[in-house]
Amino acid sequence: MKSHPDPRKVAFEENKLVKKLCRLMGQAISDFNMIEDGDKVMVCVSGGKDSYAMLDILLKLRERAPIHFDLIAVNLDQKQPGFPEDILPNYLRHLQVPFHIEEQDTYSIVKRVIPDGKTTCGLCSRLRRGILYRVADELGATKIALGHHREDILETFLLNMFYGGQLKSMPPKLQSDDGKHIVIRPLAYVPEKYLERYSLDQEFPIIPCNLCGSQPNLQRNAMKEMLKQWEKSHPGRVESTFKALTHVVPSHLLDSDLFNFKELHIDPSTPVGMGDMAIDEGFDGACSTDQILQPIQFVSLT
Fold first, then answer.
1. DSSP codes joined into one string, 96-160
2. 260 exposure class (CB count in 10 Å sphere: 0-12, 13-18, 19+)
3. How far apart are CA 196 and CA 222, in angstroms?
4. Average pLDDT over residues 153-170
5. How many other CB atoms are there within 10 angstroms of residue 72's CB atom?
6. Hey, which end of the chain has fewer CB within 10 Å, N or C?
7. How many domains does one find in the chain?
8. What are the pLDDT digits (tens) for 225-260?
């Protein structure tokens, strides 16, 4: 006979997860000053696990925040075939959250412009971004919150490095090119596995994406798979890689716009014995060279 889980243990674990999410989101909001007193935050809700969780935790944080800020949920109905138009409005009414549904047929535009088999993400994201900026103006929103999590940021970093030749990722806080909008990513510190568990616990009414979600060969999927393999083979590597994005040393890279290499000269006044510790500080002295230089296993990027 199959035994049922102890409801007290289940409730305890769910409460622990909520506390972790609140702590990580609260830390990101504080570190990057994402939300300020008097802000009206436009929370972009797609119907996926990440945006549902972002809205839910923002509501919890608002209850205990020392400042006042308003939230309004916004969904962009892109007129994808079979999109269940009633799910999000019913869910948001149940939460008693102010919301706005913006209807724009970007699906037809993307399908008409992008040939079959080609990646639709670039055009789709540009269209969405322009619409969301306009809606933010119309609603008087001072911040636009997107539901990208830690792995999204790392995947973007790897994509830019491997395919774009740039050390660039999704910033946790971004000013639009015209200077009129601030985009924030409150889930920046949150691992995806926490959001997956939280989504199951909360039984969010997930709405699948029939546009980008139906493309199995995206380069981003290769990055996601690589991160999963890293974490499986070497637990902690994903966290270490993410931490590297917060500890940048321009003098030990190759960008002369960030560091003036041409003006470096021998300085006789430098005390003898100081040494160059820039690449040594993070390593345990007990580690052998073989451990430090252990080969990284990459998945195919094709």
1. T--EEEEE--HHHHHHHHSPTTS--HHHHHHHHHHHHHHHHHHHT-SEEE----HHHHHHHHHHH
2. exposed
3. 19
4. 94
5. 18
6. N
7. 1
8. 999 999 999 999 999 999 999 999 999 999 999 999
| Residue pLDDT, tens place only, 194-212 | 999 999 999 999 987 655 5
Contact assessment for residue 38 and residue 141, using Cβ atoms and an 8 Å cutoff: no
- Assigned token pair, 160: 């830019």
Domain that holds residue 15: 9-216
Helical (H) or strand (E) element with 257 = none
Joined tokens for residue 266:
């021998």
Place of tokens 């933010």: 136
**25 found inside a domain:** yes
pTM, two decimal places: 0.83
Does a structural domain hold residue 142?
A: yes
Separation CA 223–CA 27 (nearest Å): 26
Q: What is the CATH number of the domain that holds 70?
A: 3.40.50.620
Q: Residue 208 corresponds to which amino acid?
A: P
Angle between helices 150-164 and 219-233 (to 10 degrees): 120
Q: pLDDT at position 121, please?
A: 67
Cβ atoms 158, 223 nearer than 8 A:
yes
Residue in the block written with tokens 């094709």 = 302
Residue 28 lies in a domain: yes
Which of 55-59, 118-122, 217-221, 282-286 holds the top average pLDDT? Answer: 55-59
Query: Rounded to the nearest 5 degrees, what angle is found at the Cα of 64, between the Cα atoms of 59 and 66?
Result: 115
Length reported for the chain = 302
Condensed to tens digits (0 to 9), the pLDDT of residues 90-116 reads 999 999 999 999 988 777 777 777 777
Sheet holding 99-103: strands in order across?
A: 99-103, 70-77, 40-44, 143-145, 182-184, 173-175
Secondary structure letter of residue 250 according to DSSP: G
Residue 255 lies in a domain: no
User: Rounded CA gap, 46 and 44, in Å?
Assistant: 6
Quick one: pLDDT at residue 79?
81
